[in-house]
Request: fold
Amino acid sequence: MKESYIRFIQYLLGAAIVVLILIHLSIFTSLIGPGYELGLSWETVSQRMANPFYDIIYTLLLFALLTHGFIGIRNIIFEYTTSKRTRVAVSWIIWTIYIIVLIYGLLPIIK
Amino acid sequence: MGFAKRKRKYKTKYNLAGTAGWIGNLRMNMERYLYFLHRITGIGLVFYLILHIIITSSRMYGESAYEYTHSLINNPIADFGLFIVMAGLIFHGVNGIRLILNEYGFLLGKPARPIYPYRQILKTRTPRLLILSMIVLGFILLIIVAYELLMVWVF
Reply:
């Protein structure tokens, strides 16, 4: 993929994350949501995760954050080398970690 | 040191800056420092994200596992760490909005010819207003975060 497309995805996901993370964090403010301590208690979390709205929000947020973060890490590592072989190896390593973390993050949302 | 030699040395240093090049030679304008902080916070937030996923995944193993994992991070030191992470997140988000606006040409002010000495973008009116409003917005968000965390431990 062209680097300019990757940078465009980075900006698009960045804008999406701003909206999604405000929904995510508003739960832990006592101004809008239940507050920091109550928002993390087992009962509140179970109730929240039974709600399909939050399932969708968290799935989107997880995907957006991981993609945005790992593209950023990839861009930083790519600055240290121009060798094609190293870059392909780095890409494979990052893809592997990305898939593992994505699946591990999705498990508690689905369950 | 002759001019040519000094120039060559500077050029070599500049080209092989590596990680130190993120900070540069301390003669940069403000945008470069924002860029540096954007990178540092970005790397930190990826590590925090993975930690966050590991901690919240304890929910799959039932209530006792969840309560145990959360008892480990239920102390003022961990919450101070959370405050730093939130500060990094707010900076990254607010500066990210500025980057998106600038990338697509919004709020950059009037264009000028690139004649030496070059105009520093943040010394012109519109971008300076933009960054000032970003700082204000960031501080408001940070105060909300600090209030929530202090509510748990102080009040």
About this structure: Residues 78 and 86 of chain A are 9 Å apart (CA to CA). The first helix of chain A runs from residue 3 to 26. Chain A touches chain B at residues 11, 14-15, 17-18, 21, 28-31, 35-37, 40, 42, 45, 49, 62, 65-66, 69-70, 72-73, 76, 80, 101, 104-105, 107-108, 111 (CB under 8 Å).
